[in-house]
Design goal:
The chain is mainly beta and 126 residues long. The protein is 6% helix and 41% strand. The chain has 1 helix and 10 strands, in the order βββαβββββββ. The strands form 2 sheets. A 7-stranded mixed beta sheet has the order 6-7-8-9-4-3-10. Strand 1 and strand 2 form a beta hairpin. The longest helix has 7 residues. The model has no long low-confidence stretch (mean pLDDT 93). It holds the Pfam family GFA.
Length: 126
């Protein structure tokens, strides 16, 4: 997090840069099949913020959107494939930013686990 009260992040290639206004309403790990497949990991990890505070500072034209379900939209960099945002059509006032794209790394708590019954057996224990 920055001194200005914003989160900052970018994709792997650096083509997309964004900032998002605080506060984080909650952070989560989502174990649904779609998040697991998109992230290639045990879970998708997100910070949920107000969509009005999200500003694409660089590379807006590099962002592609995939409608993964009737109510879910997933944004990613079309150059490097980095997962950037998840948006719900049912809650357009919120956007979920992927924790792994934040610079510096997210220092707040992760309060929620979504679809916890889908946690893979191979995930790290701890």
């Amino acid at each position: 997090m920055s001194d200005q009260g914003d989160l900052h992040g970018s994709c792997l290639c650096g083509g997309v840069r964004y900032r998002a206004a605080l506060p984080v309403f909650h952070a989560s790990h989502c174990y649904c099949t779609m998040c697991r497949k998109q992230h290639g990991a045990a879970a998708g990890s997100y910070a949920n913020v107000a969509s009005a505070g999200l500003v694409i500072e660089q590379g807006a034209g590099l962002i592609a959107e995939y409608a993964s379900s009737a109510d879910g939209r997933r944004d990613f960099c079309r150059v490097c494939g980095s997962t950037l945002f998840w948006r719900s059509t049912e809650s357009p006032d919120r956007v979920a930013i992927t924790l792994g794209t934040l610079e510096p790394e997210y220092g707040g708590p992760v309060e929620r686990e979504l679809f916890a019954d889908n946690k893979p057996a191979w995930r790290p224990r701890g």
